[in-house]
Design goal:
The protein contains 15 helices and no strands. The chain is globular and about 75 Å long.
Length: 355
Amino acid sequence: MKDIKNQIQEALLTGVSYMLPFVISGGILIALGFLLGGYNIPNDVAQGANFASTIFWLGKVAFGLMVPVLGAYVSYSIADKPGIAPGMVGGFMAMDPWGLDMASGFLGGLIAGIVAGYIVNLLKKIPVPSSLRSLLPTLIIPVLGVTSVGLLMHYVIGGPIAAVTGALTNFLNNMGTGNLVILGIIQGCMLAFDMGGPFNKVAYAFALAAMDTGNFMPMAANFVGSMAPPLGIAIAILLDRNKEKFTDTDRNSLPGLFAGAAAMITEFAIPFAAAHPLQVIPSLMVGSAVGCALSYIFGLTMQAPHGGIFVLFALNNALLFLVALLVGGFVTGAILFFIKKPVSETEQSLEEIVD
């Protein structure tokens, strides 16, 4: 059991190391797009109509590859090269490519990669005649692996998550703004739990629906809860002055984390959450919950659907917004710093390989 745990941990770290360039490049390009083209750029029908739009959508392309790459290289770490195709397809399925409301986000990509790796390892043991042995890695494993993982993602993993997200959407809509603090806590936890995944999207959809009715408070809270996770991780890294809990690679991510916080790109926190989910995700949820609750207490409103600090002009009180964001970030940073375990030998060896 311990060997399996270590294997999965190493696989997660491997997947994160390959995914990181897509997160960084995509996030920075998206931020530049907002800076150059304004907060309405996602609604630009003519994608690529100008330079700012082109930069923004290039970033979206890089971001779109993030979860498939994560699934591919988690599987690769477990099953070597034959695991890449099944893992990548599983990660792609986690993004709900057919629009069936069955998205499972980066958590689904992690699950797909792990499942794909172990399925491929089982397929390697299929007894075949020596004359057909060469077909095992080139034909049999890819076809059976992709089919198995794809079907599991479609019929087993996607359905339950879709049911949960539907129930959460109804819950939030029925709750409304009757109890603002509780609503903020729930909204913050959902935004930080899977960072761009189905829970995050339910909270964002709720904020968008509220905007349509003229209620701009949920969107302000959505901004705070989405920006706090990368900011909180950056703060935790800065608090680790003795360099015991974060690697040099983690520290090199500081510019990207601050950029993600500024541009409201929660996904910059995903590599850290994927590598140490039990330590990072609860810390992010608490910080975002505190920040969202403060947003409601302060009575903040936001009339822009996205954009981070680049659309502060759409807030009713930018100063209190920054207070809520900083408090949420510091809560996450402090919790993560205190509960984060020291860097393991596995992480150190992986860092040497990456370097």
